[in-house]
Amino acid sequence: MSTENSTAETPPPAVSGLKRLRYKLEFFGLKLVETVVPRLPYAALRPLANALGFVFFHLDSRGQAVAIENLRVALGSAHTPAERIRIARRSCQNFARTMLCLFWSSNLTSENYRDYILIDGLDNDPIHRDKNSPGVYFLTHFSNFEWISLASSFAVTPGLVITQTFKNPLLGPVFDRLRARGGHTLIPPSRALIRMIKLLRAGGKVGAAADLSINPKHGAVPVRCFGLWTSMSPIAGILSERGGAGLVPSQIFPEPDGRFRIVYHPPLELHPGATHQQIAQACWDIMEPMIARNPELWLWSYKQWKYKPSAAPVGQYPFYANPAKRFDEILESQTALLP
Q1: What is the reported pLDDT for 116?
Q2: CA–CA gap between residue 60 and residue 88 (Å, rounded)
Q3: pLDDT tens for residues 264-318?
């Protein structure tokens, strides 16, 4: 099963001596985490994540401001300003837990992963039951999203993982190694889409993010996200169309006892000839209610609305959003086709 983590491969920029030193320190710090965390008892991860997330939330003023602003424009009067701060803090703590679980995942095997991850819906999934039926299992950056990919290598099938590009080039191999531990094959971002389509045409299964915001110049489609237009990746529609694949929503939830539960829903029913925009919207629409009910589990510090319509009223979009001519163009051309 393939997982989408990056969209483009760029050459590394020139690095100054001071930045090179910082990169090395970050690398050694990450290696320390990679060494220590797997030795911790699993029960220690949640309280440790709560502590680390609390500290990081209050130190990262920029990420805190983005998260609170996203909550304001997305959920509006459903939450008071104090509640937005609480939700944003818990979202940061959830992300810390996700990262700790990723580093701890070297303890998981095909024999013991069900002691930590419960699976619902997969046995009734017609795409999973048919080993020759191609499928796109899509998800959002919600709860422990890293473990959906890992669990899929055990419960569905090992597949492809697209290597992630970091500003610090020393960090990428560490995360790539962690994400490939279940048997996935690492592939670079260049030509990754072609590799995924070929896998689907051979009856394989791949994963894709349904909440990935991209530059409108890079083939984006407009999607209504909490009532606001955003510039979204068309990856699910491209894979479904060119790979002849069904689209299966997948979600993961924390359980009170510390485990996680992955829920695979029935494949989406799309009308014939659905456009990439309509498919992206359908994927998002099935995920949004779950995020609205459990807002503390979504990654609110991500700049989901980097671009906004030029005619948008002041304050309707987050402070970091900027108008873009290309975004106006795709809004005008693609939303005119909506039913």
Answers
A1: 97
A2: 12
A3: 999 999 988 899 999 999 999 999 999 999 999 999 999 999 999 999 999 999 9
Distance from C-alpha of 220 to C-alpha of 167, rounded to nearest angstrom: 23
Quote the CA–CA distance of 220 and 241 in Å, as a whole number.
Answer: 16
Distances in whole angstroms, Cα of residue 229 to Cα of each of 213, 232, 249, 305: 11, 9, 21, 8
What whole-number distance in Å separates Cα of residue 27 and Cα of residue 128?
39
- The domain ranges of the chain are 42-335
Q: Which residue has the higher pLDDT, 296 or 132?
A: 296
Q: Find the helix or strand (DSSP H, E) in which 61 lies.
A: helix 61-75
Is the separation of the CB atoms in 270 and 237 below 8 Å? no
Cα gap 82→35, rounded to integer Å: 38
| Host H or E run for residue 237 | helix 235-243
Q: Mapping DSSP to helix (H, G, I), strand (E, B) and coil, where does residue 52 land?
A: helix
Beta-bridge partners for 207: 137
Structure tokens at 122: 């997969």
Helix (H, G, I), strand (E, B) or coil at 157: coil
Mean local confidence (pLDDT), 34-44:
97
Across 104-120, b (16+ Cβ under 10 Å) vs e yields bbeebeeeebeebbebe
User: Model-level pTM greater than 0.85?
Assistant: yes
How many other CB atoms sit within 10 Å of the CB of residue 194?
11
- Please, which residues have CB within 8 angstroms of residue 215's CB and are 6 or more apart in sequence? 231, 306, 307
Query: Which DSSP symbol is given to 214?
Result: -
